[in-house]
Amino acid sequence: MAISLQKGNRFNLSKKEPGLDKIMIGLGWEVKAGNTLDLDASAFMLTGNGKLLADEYFVFYNNLKSPDDSLQHTGDNRTGVGDDDDEMILANLPLINSNITDILITVSIHEAQVRHHNFGLLDEAYIRILDVNTKREILRYDLDAEFRINTDIEFGRLTKADNDWNFVASGIGSNHGLQGYVDAYA
């Protein structure tokens, strides 16, 4: 049974899931009836100074793989239609460049300002981590309604400290768009 996290909770993947090496970060959402949204999942692979190691370590719909082959975005889902995960990022933890200390996972609404879209048009949204080898869900963080006016959210982050990978359920909303994250972390 998966662990359900609340905002701010931390889960030590290395200690609680020994031998875990390949994970799938699944992001899902349900759009309220009568609406359409194009949400985009992104991963920012950050060094200890809080910046991208290089531009190529920003993994998103236009750059599907990190240069170290440790992260792979499976592609853009433009509608969110269907059950289960709408966008997925695969991570091979042992391959992650040793200079990376954080992997920030964000979701932003494509052209939110132009289309007057926000997370209030969603019924629910979540991030979850699965063990790729066993297909078992390890943890899940369901976002609540507090983000209804936001256009982008830091869902969570993987952090590395003392060779342990942890997941932190961030839940930080903003209205800066994907470019705002790029400006902050590039």
Describe the structure.
- The structure is a single chain.
- The model has no long low-confidence stretch (mean pLDDT 90).
- The strands form 2 sheets. A 6-stranded mixed sheet has the order 1-10-9-3-7-6, with no helix packed on it. The protein has a 6-stranded antiparallel sheet with strand order 2-12-11-8-4-5.
- The longest helix is centred in the C-terminal third of the chain and has 9 residues, at 177-185.
- With 186 residues, the chain is mainly β.
- Strand 9 (122-131) and strand 10 (136-143) form a beta hairpin.
- The protein has a single domain (3-185), classed as sav2460 like domains (Lipoxygenase-1, Sandwich), CATH 2.60.60.30.
- It contains 3 helices and 12 strands; from the N terminus they run E-E-H-E-E-E-E-E-E-H-E-E-E-E-H.
- Helix content is 9%, strand content 44%.
Q: Which features does this protein show?
A:
single chain, 186 residues, mainly beta, Lipoxygenase-1, 6-stranded antiparallel sheet, 3 helices, 12 strands
In short:
With 186 residues, the protein is mostly beta strands. The protein has helices spanning 13-16, 112-115, 177-185, and strands spanning 3-5, 10-12, 22-31, 39-46, 58-59, 71-73, 87-92, 102-109, 122-131, 136-143, 152-161, 164-174.
